[in-house]
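dumping this here before i forget
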Amino acid sequence: MWADDYLAFCWQMKDLGEAVADYVDAPDECTLLKRIDEFNYAVYTGRWVSLSGAGADRD
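structure:
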């Protein structure tokens, strides 16, 4: 990923966090940005979570 693309991604995640902050409970010390990061990891890197709702994408 190019630096400019990564910076744009970071700003998008910041904007997303601000947009959904009022809808997310904070039962622990984990920041909203960290939760978004872990979700993205689970979907795109680990493939443990599917965005289709049909279960994990992993075979």
